[in-house]
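check these tokens.
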Amino acid sequence: MNSGLLNTILLYISIDVSKACVSSGICTGGYGCETNVAPTCVGGCAFGYTCGQYGCYSKARARSSKTFAFHPQTNEHFYDTKQEGLTSEQLADEMFHDCCLDQHLPDSCLQKCSFKTYTKNNLQAIYLHLDDCPLKAIAAITYCAARGIDHTPCCIENGVARTIAGSKCLVLCDQRSGNVTELNLSYLPCFERFNDIKSCFMEYSNSKYQSVNTDAMPVVQRFGS
């Protein structure tokens, strides 16, 4: 996934670029680097928690339980928002959160797994070590926000490439698993378009959970997610 690019861009707008790290380490205030190592869960985890690659996470995953509908003519899946009484935006946030649960993110990171809290300021706080959510978890959070797909067409329409970095910024929109790009300072201008990129993630997620008149479907299978 290309969340690493987004991570680097966020970091450089928060510290003196001339002193910033351009290697694979984590910058500490812009003065030198330290190795980015996985959390070791020093001291063990609290009762009901277990150690994962991002730190201690709850073993009791409270996933959403919504009525899911399958349309046999289009082979698409929908949440029956009419029955659940929730908006598409609310359901998109729940799926964002459920994805983060599947990534075994700690509680401090789960708080960012909503389009209301997936913000530039919150991500910057993680980068500056002002938040308990570990830096490496931003990649998983961004992957979940994008639902792991390529949003390039939307980003083009939103003008993400209209920076001095040009079309390079479009790689930030492709969050398919396995897409990794070498980072450098030429990506810094792309951060101007963070909200445009995020809006593509939101638009896609909201569209997947629009209300569907399941009563009009010839055959619908409903089951818990």
Summary: The radius of gyration is 19 Å. The chain is about 30% helix and 10% strand. Confidence is low (pLDDT under 50) at residues 15-37, 70-77, 211-225.
